[in-house]
Receptor-like serine/threonine-protein kinase
Amino acid sequence: MAFVQFYPILLSLLFALFSLSVLAQTTSNITLGTSLTAGEDDSFRASPSGEFAFGFKQIEEDGFLLATWFNKIPEETIVWSANGQNLTPKGSKVELTSNGWFQLVDPNGKQIWNANPLGTEVAYAAMLDSGNFVLRGQDSQNLWQSFEQPTDTILPGQVLNQQAQLVARYLPTNYSRGRFQFNLQDDGNLVLYTTFFPTDHVNSAYWSTQAFGTGFSLIFNLSGYIILRADNGTIISTISSNTMYSRKDFYQRAVLDYDGVFRHYIYPKNSGSSTGSWSTFSVTPSNICLRVNEEMGSGACGFNSYCTFDGTNKSCHCLNGYSFIDPSDVMQGCKQDFVSQSCDQTSRETDLFDFHEMSNMEWPFSDYEHFQSVSEDWCTQECLSDCFCSSIVFKDGECWKKKQPLSNGRMDPSVGGKALIKIRKDNATLIPEDINRDNDRSKLIIIGSTLLSSSVFFNLVLLVAACLVAYRCCRSNPKGDQDVQLTSTMNLRSFTYEELRQGTKGFTEELGRGAFSIVYKGFLPDTPGNLIAVKKLNMVKGSEKEFEAEVSAIGRRHHRNLVQLLGFCNEGEDRLLVYEFMSRGTLAEFLFKDQRPTWSQRVDIAIGIAKGLLYLHEECSTHIIHCDIKPQNVLLDDSYIAKISDFGLAKLLKIDQTVTTTAIRGTKGYVAAEWFNNKPITMKVDVYSFGVLLLEVICCRKKFDLNVEDEHEVVLIEWAYECFHHRRLDLLVENDEEAQIDMKKVEEYVMIGIWCIQEDPSARPTMKQVVLMLEGFMDVSNPPDLSSFTS
């Protein structure tokens, strides 16, 4: 009976509490016709619990950021922002107009940002306790939410679907878009990228889940797990797992920080106003210094600097003799504080420079010469005598000469070896007049010393004697000198036949074969990676020339997209070449199998091959025409990086030579018309072959395919041109969902391929132009009609 009497009172109390709750939430909303003004006291709205807020944060003296943030901790922690690229001045407003338009305007009423969903009217805006800021319609359904438009942070309860991305801010207190991205791609792969800053184009991946599929989501669940999950509930990958810290007692957030590291942070809720701070729970990747390894760009830190990682934080440092261009923005890199070594032939200034030694240091991709089986003293003297050499890396008898600007610098115990930085002695900074004066003084000293201490007759006797000794050595041991020349000038190791026979288990495991050779898999414990590929030449007519051409063409070359020649065997009648082992086999095997590679993989492969050819054509000291570019001569490593191989037909060009004449070479279907017309052969023959190869990469089919139903599709270049001419490029990538989503790039790549296979060599682009077009840095114009096709 007492309960019955109390029941109406209880109902009234519950209704009152509910009303207060609704009232509290309503007062935190932004309703029709209301606004918040930057610089005023009432410039934000808190969530019902007060844990989060939405409004204006002052970043600069007269620069305000429209943002959401943690509202109950003293450490300013912004989790989302609308106008990081364009801070607004005092007096700017974010308003929900009476007709349901949500926008940010400056004091003059000019719109800076808006969040209106197309074709809908917003009834009110609300800051939720989850940290999500939402725009809602009359039915209280979310029309727009900050959780679906993240900047650099995700919170518990947030879900990112495919095509979503996080973009690191530029600096800790600069909220404009920075140099790193975290993308959940169309193919389901979750990838961390560097960018071609200041553009948003991705450059190089430095971490990924390597998971591919559709219906994937990145979920930061309420238990603190950050997972990649499929629609059916299967956990594909766990990025961070946190069951130790409950949501009740700790705030959590995950951020792609400005330094490129994706960090999961925790903060104790009941820590008090002065003792709390964000702690790092996990980092991805585990060591960004070692993971960023980009061919173009500065790496994890700026140019001419190096990166260290203590397990939580990345640090960028300048070398001895260098200083930061901008200490507040270390990613801009370091500048040299001394005058570079003179390249004047009369005085190389070797006595004015010395080396600063640093252990466990390297700069991948900054090297331009590589020597093997040399001493450290030989290496340093070689660098001192080379005015282009800014530093060297020496490890296990190998010497890499580095050029500026140095990129991808990292210091880590796993690197091993040492770097020696060439700096002017005593760090002296000399102006050019001082250098010239020193050079003149050095010349006088040299001339005087020569006149005082030498005899013309004595020097002549020594010269004749030296020539006689050299002549006798050449006559008595020609093969020995040949091997010495190859090992010293081309930095190659000379293997014995027995070494290679044992390393290949008697040449038993065949990897492939050509007209003059068979390639075997081998194992040698003292070579990089231990696994090798041994090319054994059949000593028939033509094979000796192939051996000489291959050693000459690739012996001194070192590039990310060329297979590295490690050494050779030139013993009696045996000619063998030893290469790095490429675990993924040939591009032909990868491209023409039943399950086609992804579109993004094919794009990377095409760009890699193009860069390898650009290096051969323009960037190495002796320009090289490969003469046989085809899928069988492109190999793939563990990371599916494409590397050009098989230089047996290569033609070296002398200095200032751009053309050559030679008999027909190459493979049918990839050979340019000038081979058959007895015209001079230029680098454009490789461009033609690349054009055919590019079309094969786009379509995942061979240049000739007799198994197709339509006879018009047998010859790939003819069919590709017809599809382009009739605007039916979708036929080239039929059943390839990823490529069909990216049809603009498919069209551009087909156009590049058609440009490359023009019959007139002068109409074809250079490989430099091809690379620029493939990477989107150069517009692709409509190619002319193809009057005829050669095969």
